[in-house]
Structure formats: structure tokens, C-alpha cells
Amino acid sequence: xxxxxxxxxxxxxxxxxxxxxxxxxxxxxxxxxxxxxxxxxxxxxxxxxxxxxxxxxxxxxxxxxxxxxxxxxxxxxxxxxxxxxxxxxxxxxxxxxxxxxxxxxxxxxxxxxxxxxxxxxxxxxxxxxxxxxxxxxxxxxxxxxxxxxxxxxxxxxxxxxxxxxxxxxxxxxxxxxxxxxxxxxxxxxxxxxxxxxxxxxxxxxxxxxxxxxxxxxxxxxxxxxxxxxxxxxxxxxxxxxxxxxxxxxxxxxxxxxxxxxxxxxxxxxxxxxxxxxxxxxxxxxxxxxxxxxxxxxxxxxxxxxxxxxxxxxxxxxxxxxxxxxxxxxxxxxxxxxxxxxxxxx
Length: 345
Known about the structure:
Elements: H1 3-16, E1 23-25, H2 29-38, E2 53-58, E3 63-68, E4 71-76, E5 83-95, E6 98-108, E7 117-123, H3 126-131, H4 138-152, H5 157-160, H6 165-170, E8 173-176, E9 179-182, E10 189-194, H7 198-201, H8 213-230, H9 235-241, H10 251-266, E11 273-276, H11 280-288, E12 293-296, H12 307-315, H13 329-344
Parallel strand pairs: 7-10, 7-11, 11-12
Antiparallel strand pairs: 1-2, 2-3, 3-5, 4-5, 5-6, 6-10, 8-9
Helix pairs in contact: 1-2, 4-13, 8-9, 10-11
């Protein structure tokens, strides 16, 4: 951070020490406007509306959070074209000793009244998401959470039949005690997409602040991705060839893995969590933040194309992948729907 940024961060950190809240929201005009001027979105006070942005501080991780207040969307699943309602928020999480984390969050269902909240936290993967690479199953895992969320939260007929669906979807979610939640009795889902963590958080360094995390991660991950083939090595070997820590999310006291828990604190979630993940580090960090949490394994797809990387994740990164036998997307979807119903009933 530069001196101006560090000064405002320190001011906010000192302010929160007077509060016993997990999340401390910045209300003072001068500090609010100064924060949005010095950090992304870099808006001057005259362009910055407090009705559109929030500045908060998460106490346990000592993280500054900048976000928009969110928008209600009619979303469609890429796989089966199912329509479902979604509340979408964009956030930045900032610390002096870690690169800026950029996160998209999608909420559907009633996260206030659901007995348990279904959560999927996923790092970006450009080769899979943009280019359709089959050597990993990252995209299928993200498609899976969309399909699951939509199957439990179909778009209400009232909105489908409306002559003004935009007006209807604007009123579908409510903000209650600071929590955005659907006006329904449907199962709550939270989808967390960590754009800055392209390739397992490749943009991170130990104790180094940088604002270009996404670009750094983008080029480093492309280098790691190339190194695997150029040097005929594994995922771990690809990271090591370009001189960075395999799975840089573990740097800075596992800060990359703390992001989902910080988001849940920001959303004021207190309910038990069902995390869709094979990565024990993800659930460990959520539990360290005080959440009651359990996990359901999520693979998305296993076949001859992604078999090697699935094995690397299991053997090198110790993901809880019980079986690497072939599994289709449809088979996985059916299995997960059944397991989720068991957990929430």
C-alpha cells in the first residue's frame, strides 16, 4: 500500500477496535469517501453514492471490504437453461500484507430462514471457463452449483408470466438486518467466485500488497499451465517450475482460504454451512471463523480427459477425492441433489 492507503486502512482498523461486532461498517462520510477514492473503484466523492457502495472491516482477519450493495437478476443455468432468481454482489477484500482479492457472490433462496446454507467457493480458472479446457473439471463444478441452486429455487411463475419481469425481480429479494435474502421459503445457496484467485491464487506472494492480483494470477497461471506440458510435470511441478508456491492460497497464513469465511461474516450468516468442496483447507478455515460446517464432495465430472489432474489434486494437494472412477455430470447432479436433501431435512 502507498502511504495514503495505509493511513486510511489504519484509521479504519483503529475505529473498529471500539466495536465488538464481527463486521464493522464505516458510516463516517469523510472516511467512507476517502476509502473509495484511494482504493478501487477510485471514485471521487461527488461520484460516490453511499446508497450504492459499502465500506466494512472484518475484525478477525483485519480485512477492509469494499462492495456494491448488489442487484437482483433473473439468471439462467448454462447447462439446462433453467431460470432462477439471483442476488449478485461484487466485493474487494484488502489487507496491507496480501494482494487485493476480487470476489463475485451470488445468493438465491432464503438464507435467513434456511436451517443450513449451501455454499460453493471456487477459484477462477480461465482455461476451463473461457476456453472449455477438459483437462480439469473446474467449469463443471461451477455449472453444478448453478444447476443445484436453480433446481431448489426455480423462478416463480409470477415473474415468468409478468409483463414487467425486471420490476418483479427487483422486489423478489429483501434486505433484512443487512442480509439480502429471497422472499420465499426456498433453500438458501451462496455462490462465491474468486476472480483474483485464477489458478489456485497464483497472483499471491508472501507479505506483498499488490492491486493487480487478477492480472498477475492470469499470467502466472498460464505459465504454470504451460510448464506442465513443456516440462512433462504435474500440477505441483508446474508451480515449482515458474518459482512460486504450489497452491499460493496457503500464503499469508492461509489468507486465500479465509476469503469464503470473510464473505460469510460480511453477509452476517450464523447458520450451519454445507460446503460443496473436496478441499479440506476450505472447510478448516470456515470452521476457524466459528462456523458449524460440514462438506459434501463435488467433482462435476471425471473422465479420461481430466483424470490426471484429478489424481494430482488428490495425491499432491490432498483433496478428499475418494474415487477417481468415471462420473458423468448428470450422475453427479443426481447424487448431489440427494445428498443435499439428506443434510437439510
